[in-house]
Write a structure and sequence with these properties.
The chain is an alpha+beta fold. The chain folds into 4 domains: about 1-150, Beta Polymerase, domain 2 (2-Layer Sandwich), CATH 3.30.460.10; about 155-240, Orthogonal Bundle (cca-adding enzyme, domain 2); about 240-360, no CATH class; about 365-415, no CATH class. It has 22 helices and 10 strands. The strands form 2 sheets. Strands 1-10-9-2-3-6-5-4 form an 8-stranded mixed β-sheet. Strands 7-8 form a two-stranded antiparallel sheet. Strand 9 and strand 10 (about 135-140) form a beta hairpin. Helix 2 (about 15-25) packs across helix 4 and helix 10 (about 205-215) crosses helix 14 (about 265-270).
Length: about 425
């Protein structure tokens, strides 16, 4: 007997109705059900982002049904039974029920089926093997998904080792789901299987590892999940550059206690040695975006050294050199690495100072240097660097006259 799921707006809006109507016209009302994350999150009263649909209809029938209804049908992965429908500008991933015939840890050969239990048996975790029809009735073919969801138990469907060897990414997914949905102690069988097969993580593409890792680090509090990853060898396989959890744990504590927004990339930086070379190498290996790579490298820089007792003047000089964003990242990492809990107030005060200071533009141009009598060429840069150093040392005065006087003095004192 299915459990009732409160009807939610995403289940009945125009786009969803168009897709479900198109499938029902061909296969009847029982031909398609919502599945996976949308059902899981709806039951937990959490936001639903993606709407996935499972169906007994063959992929080519799904395409035909969508086109007959005037909807766009994209053959996303016909070999695996997946078609993406687009309705009201929103994508809906529709996958034919299937069972695995052959797997190698990354790819699977599947056969289509009309048996909901067979389809559920090939899914990763029990809380993801839940289906719901348009009326809001929830179906739990494994008989364990609803109970595990309520308890916060992240458990593999069937044998954990078998599920992992079918797709090694499920090791990373286990810890991600534990970070977002787990409560209490982790499932012992699942943890043991992840530990036993942790070396399989190295066979995954770095893009998949990076995506899973950064998503996990975006959880409100991923400390327990990351600690378990370290204990099982999974963290070392996914992120061999990681060096201890102390700074990472401290950073998450700071974010939590100070009500800062969690920052997955900064949390990644906290797992790494305080070395910009390592940051650059890690970002390059994981094929992060250029913006993420630059940020990680800058965050792990060591010069200038930041301390909690920096004066406002010293803070402005550091922000001038680093930029407000890099200064904030380095300050947070330095705070996390600090062994002086009493300095929290000082660290807390540095951040708004850096973020609100209107970083000025150096108010001197090369043409003004030439006008002061310096010949064109390399000397112009040397003079400007000299004047800029003086300007910074004077705490960025908004006084063009003093700057010009300094320029004249420097120009007169230099031998050309």
């Amino acid at each position: 007997m299915p459990d009732a799921l409160l009807r939610q707006a995403w289940m009945t809006n125009a786009g969803t109705a168009q897709v479900m109507d198109a499938l029902a016209r061909v296969g009847g009302e029982d031909a398609a059900r919502f599945v996976g994350g949308c059902v899981r999150n709806a039951l937990l009263r959490r936001p639903v982002a993606d709407i996935d649909i499972a169906t007994v209809l063959a992929p080519e029938v799904v395409v035909s049904a969508l086109q007959a209804a005037g909807l766009k049908a994209i053959p996303t992965g016909l070999a695996h039974g997946t078609v993406t429908a687009v309705a009201q500008g929103r994508p809906f991933e529709i996958t034919t029920l299937r069972r695995d015939i052959e797997t190698d840890g990354r790819h699977a050969v599947v056969a289509f089926t009309d048996d909901w239990r067979e389809d559920a048996a090939r899914r990763d975790f029990t809380l993801n093997a839940l289906y719901a029809d348009r009326t809001g009735a929830v179906f739990d073919p494994t008989g364990e998904g609803l109970a595990d969801l309520r308890a916060g138990d992240i458990r593999f469907v069937g044998d954990p080792g078998a599920r992992i060897t079918e797709d090694a990414l499920r090791i990373m997914r286990f810890f991600r789901f534990f970070a977002f949905y787990g409560r209490g102690e982790p499932d012992g069988a699942a943890l043991a299987a992840c530990s036993e097969h942790h070396s399989l993580v190295a066979t995954l593409s770095v893009e998949r590892i990076a995506k899973e890792l950064l998503t996990l680090l975006a959880a409100d509090d991923p400390r327990t999940a990351v600690r378990l990853m370290a204990r099982t060898g999974v963290l070392g396989a996914a992120l061999p550059e990681a060096r201890g959890l102390a700074a990472f744990n401290a950073l998450v504590t700071i974010e939590t206690e100070q009500l800062f927004t969690c920052d997955p990339l900064l949390r990644l930086a906290a797992l790494l040695p305080h070395d910009p070379i390592v940051g650059l190498a890690t970002a390059t290996r994981l094929r992060l975006s250029s913006a993420q790579r630059d940020r990680l490298e800058a965050a792990l820089g060591v010069d200038p050294r930041l301390v909690s007792w920096m004066s406002p003047r010293e803070t402005r000089r550091a922000v001038w050199r680093l930029g407000a964003a890099a200064f904030a990242d380095r300050a947070m990492l330095a705070w996390a690495a600090s062994d002086r809990p009493a300095a929290a107030t000082q660290w807390r005060a540095l951040l708004p100072m850096a973020q609100t200071w209107p970083r000025p533009t150096f108010p001197l141009s090369g043409e003004e240097v030439v006008a002061a009598g310096v010949p064109r060429g390399p000397l112009i840069g040397a003079v400007m660097r000299d004047i800029e150093a003086w300007w910074i040392d004077q705490d960025f005065p908004d006084d063009k006259l003093s700057l010009i006087e300094r320029l004249k003095a420097v120009a007169q004192g230099m031998a050309y």
